[in-house]
Amino acid sequence: MKKVYFIGIGGIGMSALAQMMLDDGAEVTGSDRDASPVTELLEKKGIKVAIPQKAENMPEDAEMAIYSDAVPADNPERARAQELGIPQLSYFAMLGEVSKEKRTIAIAGTHGKTTTTGMLTKIVKDAGASPTAIIGSIVKDFGSNYLSGSSDIFIVEACEYRDHLLELSPQILVITNLEWDHTDYFPSLAALQETFKKAIERVPADGAIITDLSNQNIAPLLAGAKASIFDYKKEPVYKLAMPSSFNEDNARAAAAAARVILPAISDTIISESLATFQGTWRRFEYKGKTAKGAVVYDDYAHHPTAIRETLYALRGKTKGKIFVAFHPHLYSRTRDLLNDFSSAFIGADKVFIAPIYAAREVDDGSISSEILAERIRKTGIYAIAIDSFDAIEHAIDEAEQGDIIMTMGAGDIYKVADALVAQNKKPTP
Hints:
The protein has helices at residues 12-23, 37-44, 76-84, 91-100, 113-126, 189-202, 245-261, 267-275, 304-315, 331-336, 338-342, 369-377, 389-396, 414-425; strands spanning 3-7, 27-31, 48-50, 64-67, 88-90, 103-108, 132-139, 144-147, 153-157, 172-175, 208-211, 228-231, 285-289, 295-299, 322-327, 350-353, 382-385, 404-409. By secondary structure, it is an alpha/beta fold. The protein has a 7-stranded mixed sheet with strand order 8-7-9-6-10-11-12, with helices on both faces. Strands 13-14-18-15-16-17 form a 6-stranded mixed sheet, sandwiched between helices. Strand 13 (285-289) and strand 14 form a beta hairpin. The protein is globular and about 55 Å long.
């Protein structure tokens, strides 16, 4: 394939696949709705990104249009591709095709996929095995969400939403943990478990499944496995630059997977690689300080468990106040997990809640950031819904030296963190 156009190229998976196809010799271009750190990264690598999306962006001689899951069929560029007779394939379908040709290691689970994928990629790279990897965020160690390798080892972050996990053909499947999520697609935990059960049963007999055998949401699903099963909890707790119970488990899962991929790998390589892992964009990321001296972090946490664990780790870093700017992701998730969200902010002193990030959904009026704020207040935590990022930035700037600000969520709330830190860098008039 020589000329490929990516619709929604700024998506974290899409951008990695675009880089991979560029490395394979394709002429790659694409589009997105807005500029972002990811589109800037692509431009630096020579991939032209059109912003915004318009029908005329679609190259008439494109051989394939690859579209993000977030791009509907009536998108003007997809409609134009249809008119021109250009074949279209979803990101996950294309990823599945790539997966068939390589020794694929898929990292799945509700929490920790991105960090585990980054850690595993670094370990295998540090061991000299030259993997190719597609990761769900920009890994600081590589400066990208994609790593080009010369071996047949293909490490990929796998998403269970809409059963996309089942598009892949992994030789090795890592399941970090499992909780009910993507409630707009999975009506229950049991429905989500059924997808993982199918994925487990598809791993071949000469393959491997790496997971936490003590996880009661996972253990019952393993009965039909043909592959060998490895318990990552048997790994030691590794020294990390960014310690937390979540990251300790991520590291153990990555280490166990590395041992399966490279049976001769030494304990020293694993421990040294993990000790120097720098982390990923938007995963407990230190951003800087505000003009008043408050420390600013940003995190992608958007599920109640991830929020709770992140704030627990944050509380260990300060005796001052913790201010949270939270961007709820999806009406369905916020509504269906409302009870869990309401108790997830224990440890914070003040919580400022942005309007719910709708993404692919339509507001049916059943949930709002105001309802979430009210429920959080009932737990004794100060919480208020605020209607814009600018207003949140102004309100949260009361934090002082000794305090911590955490922007949190799957949307673009990180822009508040960036703005707060940028204020500190402005010259004094």
